C-alpha cells in the first residue's frame, strides 16, 4: 500500500500531501468513508465542528484499526469559540466527539474579522500546542492581511487552508504563505463543479499520462507543495485520488493548467462570510 509523501511543518509535525475531506458527509457516511480511506492508504483526515460529523470520523478511525500515531487528524472550530477559553472548549468538544486525546492540526475555520478576535483564536491554539494537546497551529480562509496580524502578535501558523484550484490558483496568497513558511492546504481542490475536470486541456494531459483529469489536477497541487484534501466516498475514486505520486507533470503542462485561471472564478470572501 502506497502512502502519500509528507511535508514538514514549522512545528516539526509531518503533514501528508494528500488527505480526505469529509464535508458534507453525515456521521454514518463519515464512519464508513474514513474507515475505507484509511484502509486504502489515507493518513490525513480533515473534519470540522461545522461539518457535524466528528463522531462519525472518530468511529471510522477506530474501525480502521490503524494506530492513532500513524494518522494525521485535523479539525476546525466556529466563530463563537474565538477566545482563549473558547478555543479550549472547542478542542474539548471535538476531541470528545472524535474519541481522541489530541488532534494533529487544529484550525480556526473562518477569521470573522468583524469580531476582532481572529488573532486571539490562533493564540488559543498555540496555547494548546504548548500543552501537547495539538501538534500544529492552523488557520483556514485567512487572507494575508489576517495572517499578518497573527504574525505581528508573534505566531506563525503552520498551515493556512484556503479555497484553491487551477481556476482559483491564489498566487498572491501562496506567495505570502511561502514567504513566511506557512504550508498551503487546498480545500475544494478539484473545483466547486465538474467544469474543471471536463476542460479539454486537462483531459488532454490526462490522456497523455494515462490518468484521470482529477488525478492531473491533484498532481498539480501536490507537485507544487500544496496539500490537497479532496472528498470522495467512492472506493475507486478514493484509490485514484491517492494514486498520484508515481507520475510527474512537465513544466509546460503545469504552465498550461495555470491558463485556466480567468481571474473571474468566484472565491468566498472571508471578510464577509464565516461561521
CATH superfamily of one domain: NADP-dependent oxidoreductase domain
Radius of gyration: 18 Å
Uncertain parts: none
Chain-averaged pLDDT: 97
At the fold tier of CATH, the topology name of one domain is TIM Barrel
Strand and helix order = EEEHEHEHEHEHEHEHHEHH
Helix count equals 10
What shape does the CA trace take? globular
Strand order of the largest sheet: 3-4-5-6-7-8-9-10
CATH class categorisation of one domain: Alpha Beta
Helix content: 25-40%
The termini sit apart by: 38 Å
Named CATH architecture of one domain? Alpha-Beta Barrel
Strand content: 5-15%
Structure description:
The protein is an alpha/beta fold. It has a domain at 14-190 and 227-233: TIM Barrel (Alpha-Beta Barrel), CATH 3.20.20. It has 10 helices and 10 strands. The chain has helices at 27-40, 54-64, 84-98, 118-130, 144-152, 171-180, 200-209, 213-223, 235-242, 251-258; strands at 6-8, 14-16, 20-21, 44-46, 72-77, 105-108, 137-140, 159-163, 183-187, 227-228. The strands form 2 sheets. The chain has an 8-stranded parallel beta sheet. α1 links the parallel β3 (20-21) and β4 (44-46). α4 (118-130) crosses α5 (144-152) and α7 packs across α8. It is globular, with a radius of gyration of 18 Å. The mean pLDDT is 97.
What is the fold's blueprint, element by element?
Layout: E1 6-8, E2 14-16, E3 20-21, H1 27-40, E4 44-46, H2 54-64, E5 72-77, H3 84-98, E6 105-108, H4 118-130, E7 137-140, H5 144-152, E8 159-163, H6 171-180, E9 183-187, H7 200-209, H8 213-223, E10 227-228, H9 235-242, H10 251-258
Parallel strand pairs: 3-4, 4-5, 5-6, 6-7, 7-8, 8-9, 9-10
Antiparallel strand pairs: 1-2
Helix pairs in contact: 1-2, 2-3, 3-4, 4-5, 7-8
Amino acid at each position: 500500500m502506497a502512502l502519500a509523501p509528507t511535508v514538514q511543518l514549522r512545528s516539526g509535525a509531518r503533514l501528508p500531501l494528500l488527505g480526505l475531506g469529509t464535508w458534507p458527509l453525515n456521521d454514518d457516511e463519515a464512519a464508513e468513508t474514513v474507515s475505507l480511506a484509511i484502509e486504502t492508504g489515507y493518513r490525513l483526515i480533515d473534519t470540522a465542528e461545522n461539518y457535524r460529523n466528528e463522531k462519525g470520523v472518530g468511529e471510522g478511525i477506530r474501525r480502521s484499526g490503524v494506530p492513532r500515531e500513524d494518522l494525521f487528524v485535523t479539525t476546525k472550530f466556529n466563530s463563537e469559540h474565538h477566545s482563549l477559553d473558547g478555543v479550549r472548549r472547542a478542542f474539548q468538544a471535538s476531541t470528545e466527539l472524535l474519541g481522541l486525546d489530541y488532534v494533529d492540526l487544529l484550525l480556526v475555520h473562518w477569521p470573522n474579522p468583524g469580531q476582532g478576535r481572529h488573532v486571539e483564536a490562533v493564540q488559543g491554539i498555540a496555547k494548546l500546542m504548548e500543552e501537547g494537546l495539538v501538534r500544529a497551529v492552523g488557520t483556514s480562509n485567512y487572507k494575508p492581511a489576517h495572517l499578518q496580524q497573527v504574525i505581528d502578535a508573534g505566531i506563525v501558523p503552520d498551515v493556512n487552508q484556503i479555497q484553491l484550484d487551477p481556476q482559483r490558483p491564489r498566487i498572491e496568497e501562496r506567495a505570502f504563505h511561502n514567504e513566511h513558511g506557512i504550508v498551503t492546504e487546498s480545500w475544494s481542490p478539484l473545483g466547486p463543479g465538474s467544469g474543471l475536470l471536463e476542460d479539454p486541456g486537462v483531459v488532454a494531459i490526462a490522456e497523455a499520462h494515462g490518468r484521470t483529469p482529477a488525478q492531473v489536477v491533484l498532481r498539480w497541487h501536490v507537485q507544487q507543495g500544496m496539500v490537497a484534501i479532496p472528498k470522495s466516498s467512492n472506493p475507486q475514486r478514493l484509490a485514484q485520488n491517492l494514486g498520484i505520486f508515481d507520475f510527474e507533470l512537465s513544466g509546460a503542462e503545469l504552465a498550461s493548467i495555470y491558463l485556466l485561471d480567468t481571474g473571474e472564478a468566484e472565491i468566498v470572501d472571508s471578510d464577509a462570510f464565516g461561521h
